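Students often ask why inverse folding is considered easier than folding. One informal answer: many sequences map to the same fold, so there is more than one right answer. In these notes we will look at a single instance of the problem. The structure comes first.
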């Protein structure tokens, strides 16, 4: 994989996640876009679950225009594939990024230069079915019904596919994250599914074991922990969504995760990070 450093000097990074714009009425959406247009920031980080497959391109386009010339760094989440197929959405989003120059989809080998000391990398990730009770859980993910790639799979085949998706993201981080840490003191990681069980909450409480297979990306977590150990004098901060319950945890002395809270139907601003 080719690794490219993209320069987007940024002082104030706005972070949003789990907007679920497909679930909001027009007035709420327009109010949100007006806020996005008017608030002060240099770049936007979106960590997935923006919309659904039927409306994602339209909603991303509206976000792109609202941000004007400010870059939009984003990953997709599982809900962005609802009512569609993964490969079809990949093609549609890639085409949109060609049309809208400020849309930057994370996970293509890039290292985003934000400042002389801080960079951003990211990947969509996916829950890999390995946390908690794993394949033995009695809970059924709605993704099996609403994402066509999973609809005809048996439970075992579905969990095998989840493992593959998690492993793909882990391999990506093993490839890209060290490249960023070689050059930057602080590296921000944007992904949709939290890589660490320590930050898993569901309904405001720690996520129960039977739900954890669908709420954590263990493969990516192990990869990131290993890389953090190899760079003890660097700092990694993971930004994730998916759980809809805000959480923050220190995984090690140089590795922290932040998970955004969310209320579907009520898109909200989570944080403006001042980049060092």
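Output (designed amino acids):
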């Amino acid at each position: 994989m080719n690794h490219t450093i993209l320069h987007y000097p940024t002082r104030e990074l706005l972070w949003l996640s789990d907007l679920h714009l497909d679930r909001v009425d027009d007035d709420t959406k327009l109010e949100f876009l007006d806020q996005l247009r008017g608030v002060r920031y240099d770049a936007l980080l979106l960590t997935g679950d923006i919309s659904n497959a039927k409306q994602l391109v339209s909603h991303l386009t509206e976000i792109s225009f609202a941000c004007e010339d400010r870059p939009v760094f984003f990953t997709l989440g599982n809900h962005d594939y609802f009512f569609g197929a993964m490969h079809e959405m990949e093609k549609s989003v890639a085409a949109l990024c060609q049309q809208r120059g400020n849309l930057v989809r994370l996970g293509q080998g890039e290292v985003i230069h934000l400042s002389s000391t801080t960079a951003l990398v990211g990947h969509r990730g996916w829950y890999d079915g390995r946390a908690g009770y794993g394949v033995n859980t009695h809970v059924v993910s709605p993704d099996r019904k609403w994402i066509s790639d999973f609809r005809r799979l048996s439970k075992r085949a579905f969990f095998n596919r989840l493992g593959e998706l998690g492993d793909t993201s882990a391999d990506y981080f093993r490839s890209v994250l060290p490249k960023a840490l070689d050059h930057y003191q602080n590296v921000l990681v944007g992904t949709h599914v939290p890589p660490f069980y320590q930050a898993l909450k569901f309904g405001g409480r720690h996520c129960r074991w039977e739900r954890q297979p669908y709420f954590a990306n263990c493969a990516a977590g192990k990869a990131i922990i290993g890389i953090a150990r190899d760079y003890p004098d660097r700092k990694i901060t993971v930004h994730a969504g998916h759980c809809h319950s805000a959480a923050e945890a220190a995984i090690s002395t140089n590795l922290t995760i932040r998970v955004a809270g969310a209320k579907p139907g009520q898109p909200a601003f989570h944080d403006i990070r001042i980049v060092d």
